[in-house]
Design a protein that fits this description.
This protein is mainly alpha-helical. It is built from 8 helices and no strands. It has 2 domains: 54 residues, no CATH class; 132 residues, no CATH class.
């Protein structure tokens, strides 16, 4: 996996350099050969060069449904290829794919964290309830003291779970967006 990520980064750097070089050559040749008579308006060919601009992540960090669809399409097309290769093969910007992949992983981790936290809280609750019930039937002072200590310790641990940091709002929103498609996305994971 590390090799794949390293290869993806190397390919992304190469594709960036190639795109920049091609854009520079095209811009220089267009600028030298032709001017657009409209003041302040770029020549049509120069407007196409601007369309080659690479992906810029949204400032809010939120995934769109279209990005999730493209991510799924790339994962389906991967079949032993790196993510960047698969993205290019299906016409998706490799930089966008990498950004979306990172957001998907963050969201899935947030979903897993919430699931584990909920299960832990339920387990603590059941254990504390069982200890309280055992305490009601206990008569020995030493047993009562031990049960009280165990209940207090478990209550402290349960309270510390609730104090764990919550994910950033963008991660929480992305998790909510991905929750219905989680099984589909996880089935495509390498």
């Amino acid at each position: 996996m590390a090799e794949s990520n390293q290869e993806d980064r190397r390919l992304l750097r190469m594709s960036k350099m190639t795109a920049l070089l091609a854009s520079a050559i095209l811009a220089c040749s267009l600028g030298a050969c032709r001017k657009d008579e409209r003041v302040g308006a770029p020549a049509p060919a120069l407007a196409r060069i601007e369309g080659l601009a690479r992906f810029r992540p949204p400032a809010d960090g939120l995934l769109t449904p279209a990005q999730v669809d493209r991510y799924v399409r790339v994962r389906r097309a991967a079949r032993g290829r790196s993510g960047a290769e698969a993205a290019r093969a299906v016409g998706v910007d490799p930089e966008e794919y990498s950004w979306v992949r990172a957001r998907v992983i963050e969201a899935l981790v947030a979903l897993d964290t919430r699931k584990v936290r909920t299960a832990s809280e339920e387990t603590y609750g059941k254990t504390i309830a069982a200890l309280r019930q055992a305490r009601q039937s206990a008569r020995d002072r030493e047993v009562l003291r031990t049960l009280d200590e165990q209940i207090a310790g478990l209550e402290r641990e349960r309270a510390s779970l609730k104090q764990m940091e919550t994910p950033p709002s963008a991660v929480a929103a992305n998790a909510k967006r991905l929750a219905p498609r989680r099984a589909e996305i996880e089935a495509l994971s390498p």
